[in-house]
From TrEMBL:
Protein name: DeoR-like protein with HTH domain
Any Pfam family: HTH_DeoR
SUPFAM superfamilies per record: Winged helix' DNA-binding domain (SSF46785)
Domain (HTH deoR-type): residue spans on this chain: 20-58
Taxonomy of the source species: Bacteria, Pseudomonadati, Bacteroidota, Cytophagia, Cytophagales
InterPro entries xref list: DeoR_HTH, WH-like_DNA-bd_sf, WH_DNA-bd_sf
Length: 172
């Protein structure tokens, strides 16, 4: 659906890269390699997004790094749209609905790094999690968001690594 609003596939991939996790940053050649596209196509979209203030750039040694502009008035809106596009809102809603005493929901793998490979790795932490529901949930979520989902259940909290979607203690 978002493809009909944002007709440039390169622009959409850049928005996913930088807005699924605002900590993601990259440079021109790295993006061209990751996306398998020419540096000219990437440069054009980076320039457009930077001029609009959606991305910010800063020098890191001899490279220019790009990152989402968290101070942009539409940052939260764009982030939410990208997360909806990826189905992360539905994923979180379904997990919290009947999984039990969920403490954290953390995205790991490619999607946390802003690469939409079609697979979403999710770690769910908590006590007394509903193991039976996870099998049903996996199939249901995959149909809803049209992506493969891999769930990992854990009883211990995760302190680093990945993108935190929900944390009961932090109120996120």
């Amino acid at each position: 659906m978002l493809e009909s609003l944002i007709t440039s596939k390169t622009r959409l991939r850049l928005l996913v890269k930088f807005f699924v996790n605002s900590q993601n940053q990259s440079h021109l050649r790295g993006l061209a390699e990751e996306f398998g596209e020419s540096t000219n196509a990437i440069r054009k979209e980076l320039n457009n997004l930077t001029q609009a203030g959606i991305l910010v750039k800063h020098s890191d040694k001899n490279k220019i790094e790009y990152q989402a502009n968290t101070n942009h008035p539409f940052f939260t809106n764009i982030r939410d749209i990208i997360r909806k596009y990826l189905g992360l809102d539905m994923l979180l809603e379904q997990i919290l609905e009947r999984m039990g005493e969920v403490e954290q929901v953390v995205l790991t793998g490619d999607i946390a790094r802003g690469s939409d490979t079609g697979t979403i790795d999710v770690v769910i932490t908590g006590e007394n999690l509903n193991d039976e529901y996870i099998n049903h949930l996996t199939k249901r979520i995959e149909q809803l968001i049209d992506r493969k989902v891999i769930f990992t259940l854990s009883s211990g909290r995760i302190s680093s690594g990945g993108l935190l979607l929900f944390d009961r203690q932090a109120g996120i």
